[in-house]
Amino acid sequence: MRIGVAQINSTVGDLEGNLSLAIDAYDQLVGQGTDLIVYPELFLSGYPPRDLLNKEKFLDDIDCQLQKFAQLTGPTPALIGFPEKSQGTKPATFNSAAWCMEGKVIQVFRKRLLPTYDVFDETRYFSSGECSLFIEYKEKKLAITICEDLWIMSDPRYTTNPLDEISSHKPDLLINLSASPWYLGKEQKRIDLLQNVARQASCPLIYVNSVGGNDELIFDGLSISMDATGKLVEISKAFEECIEIHDLEDSSDKDTISILNQKESLRKALVLGLRDYTMKSGFSKGLVGLSGGIDSAVTAALAVEALGSQNVIGVSLPSSISSEHSKDDAQELAEHLGIEFHTLPIQSIVDAAAHELSPLFKDFPPDVTEENIQARSRGLLLMAISNKFGALLLTTGNKSELAVGYCTLYGDMCGGLAVISDVPKTQVFSLARHINHEKVVIPTNTIDKPPSAELRPDQKDSDSLPDYEVLDAILQSYVEESRSISSIIESGFEEELVRKVVRLVDLNEYKRNQAAPGLKTTPLAFGVGRRIPIVQKYPN
């Protein structure tokens, strides 16, 4: 069969816009001579719709759009994902897929396995489906599944396995509509799983995934078709919309199908997530405070790629402590990127604040309070520019610093999107070098110099934190792998250092709770996927 893959970028809640995209893709693929067209999971609503599903008219409005779509279909069927409001004796909502053909919804398929881990919370909204997984078309038996229904193979959370039922019915083709969020390494994990599924079901498989950014989630597309042995037939491009045919009857030899390396995947993912968050939020411009450091440089470079140099504003906000090389590095970066650039010294604001506070602070020595006044002075000016020019302020903190609270609330944490907040510091350096692989975009000095917040004379990050290679390894163990203090120490790290890092992570939950939303790039990001109480006393 020739399967039309509609790997297109939907927007949560934009029901008319999503319908328009669906119709356009249908027309294009019918014109290319496809047998069947498949869209991603919950395409009509966008994924994840979350509490929009609880709004009074939302599901009725979705049904209206579905009927409009179905009425426009001809003899070529389309499978499209949507949230379904059931009107049976026990009203329920289902994560469903509609088989639309000849102007009607012919059959509906319902997701059976509802994930409730990481960023997923589907049992909050959906009931598990119990209807048939099969449909006959062109004298072939097709099995229709939705995302998690095929992720059962190594997951102990579920007591039923749709794949067992599918395998017993010996279908001619297994179809999966998916909205599978991306993180580094997810591509190969997904391919390996789908190959095992195809072999167990003993039939070809077509998997159509969402693409684009919605809030903190990035969907990479990378829709896949494979034969019954798990041999890859086609892979759609990653991080791009694709409206194309996957020909399951094409047995011609192809070159080895490869996926992007991790550095390029990270770059493309962040660019896509940044672009969609900005544009779907109604902004056209981005704003970055340029410190001369590596975090703001990488953020600005990504913003230019996502939005265009004409739509990015860079602002240097030096204090009396700022080094000349940092100011020079910020200006050089702006010149390389071709962006609008301004310098706004903050020392007069810092001095004014110090003057007003001096009666209260006269008996206290200077400490981190004065350092934070500098960061908050910068936040004040950047937010004013954001308000005046309607530019989305992009925060520049990385995951390592956010984890241990090496950031200032209402200062450098001000902004609407934390672009690299799920990228560890060591990976930020790696990404900077990757951005420079063809030409120097980020100044060499920015990459080579020791990292510093420059909030006191001669300050370096290493004054307060361990080397980032060590810090990131401990954070990987504690935050992402949820290992205990004793387990981390046993793996070779100094006990005092581990206890210090863990204490910092736990103490700064309140900061992360107030941070701008960040783009998810790891299996476990701060935000909706990690729900640690702010006030808690567990000793770890």
Notes on the protein architecture:
A six-stranded mixed beta sheet has the order 5-4-3-2-1-14. The chain has two domains: 2-250, Nitrilase/N-carbamoyl-D-aminoacid amidohydrolase (4-Layer Sandwich); 267-456, Rossmann fold (3-Layer(aba) Sandwich), CATH 3.40.50.620. It is of the alpha/beta class and 540 residues long. The chain is 36% helix and 18% strand. It has helices at residues 15-31, 58-71, 162-169, 186-201, 262-280, 294-307, 324-337, 347-361, 368-389, 399-404, 425-435, 444-448, 468-480, 485-490, 495-507, 509-512; strands at residues 2-7, 36-38, 78-86, 92-101, 104-110, 134-137, 140-146, 173-178, 205-209, 211-214, 217-220, 224-226, 232-235, 242-247, 285-289, 312-316, 340-343, 391-395, 417-418. The radius of gyration is 26 Å and the shape is elongated.
Descriptors:
six-stranded mixed beta sheet; 16 helices; 18% strand; alpha/beta; 540 residues; Rossmann fold; Nitrilase/N-carbamoyl-D-aminoacid amidohydrolase
Q: What overall geometry do the principal axes of the alpha carbons give? A: elongated
- Placed side by side, the strands forming the largest sheet appear as 5-4-3-2-1-14
Q: Spans with pLDDT under 50 lasting ≥5 residues? A: none
Mean pLDDT: 93
Instruction: Give the CATH H-level superfamily of the largest domain.
Output: Carbon-nitrogen hydrolase
**Total helical elements:** 16
Number of domains: 2
Biggest sheet layout = 6 strands, mixed
What is the CATH C-level name of the largest domain? Alpha Beta
What is the CATH topology assignment of the largest domain?
Answer: Nitrilase/N-carbamoyl-D-aminoacid amidohydrolase
Strand content: 15-25%
Radius of gyration using CA atoms only: 26 Å
| Range of helix content | 25-40%
CATH architecture descriptor text of the largest domain? 4-Layer Sandwich
Briefly note the structural class of the backbone: alpha/beta
Distance between the termini: 55 Å
Tally of strands: 19
